[in-house]
Design brief:
It is an enzyme of class 2 (transferase). With 201 residues, this protein is an alpha+beta fold. It has helices spanning 24-38, 73-86, 128-137, 149-157; strands at residues 4-5, 13-19, 41-44, 46-50, 61-68, 89-91, 101-107, 111-112, 142-143, 147-148, 165-171, 188-190. It has one domain: 2-Layer Sandwich (Alpha-Beta Plaits), CATH 3.30.70. Helices cover 24% and strands 26% of the residues. A hairpin with a 3-residue loop joins strand 9 and strand 10.
């Protein structure tokens, strides 16, 4: 069975959120509300509009990061999948558009090689749409195996927000606005397979 390795008790877990179908902002807001009820949200980043990475032609994403109370990887994965299902996410097309995508990025310095959920996320260090909002919400953040998130962002774009990210005037710490319930009926062709096998996006 896969093992978890942790040096110190984590203060929080880091989750990345994205949406590019329907009421994107409403879906992110509703997801934060559900995560808060299930886990406890400690902080939320500004929201960025970003170009899709890979996959078929599709609309731009809204992306953000939240810090939540820590929990074991499988427990977090269970909550994340339930929140995605509430947004009518369907896993069908790799790197395809989706109503909502929530990924577990890190849980303190814990490392897990569980095939269901790799921690830290194996591609987080390559993704501006993860690292930039994460740095906003936690300037001292470190990604196990890759060092300070500030250094990752600096290497991506000489210390500036990488091209393709546009900060919008709303933060996940702002009051929650529930998405239109009818919008949850949208079919969402998205990533197939486990989080360990597929990219968050």
């Amino acid at each position: 069975m896969a093992g978890d390795r942790m040096m110190t008790r984590p203060e929080h877990a880091v989750l990345s959120l994205g949406s590019n179908l329907g009421d994107r902002l409403g879906r992110l807001s509703a997801a934060v509300h559900r995560l808060d009820r299930a886990l406890g949200v400690l902080a939320g980043s500004p929201v960025y509009e970003t170009a899709p990475v890979g996959g078929p032609e599709q609309d731009d994403y809204l992306n953000a990061v939240v810090l939540v109370r820590p929990a074991p990887p499988r427990d977090l994965l269970e909550v994340v999948r339930e929140v995605e299902e509430r947004a009518a996410r369907v896993r069908a097309v790799r790197w395809g558009p989706r109503t909502l995508d929530v990924d577990v990025i890190a849980i303190g310095d814990l490392r897990s090689d569980d095939p269901e959920i790799l921690v830290p996320h194996p591609r987080a260090h390559l993704r501006a749409f993860v690292c930039v909002p994460w740095l906003d919400v936690d300037p001292e953040a470190t990604l196990p195996g890759h060092g300070r998130v500030a250094d990752l962002v600096a290497r991506m774009a000489a210390g500036k927000h990488p091209a393709g990210l546009r900060r919008i005037p709303w933060s996940l710490s702002d009051p929650v606005v529930e998405a239109d319930p009818g919008a949850d009926a949208v079919t969402d062709p998205a990533v197939g397979g486990s989080d360990a096998e597929e990219a968050a996006r």
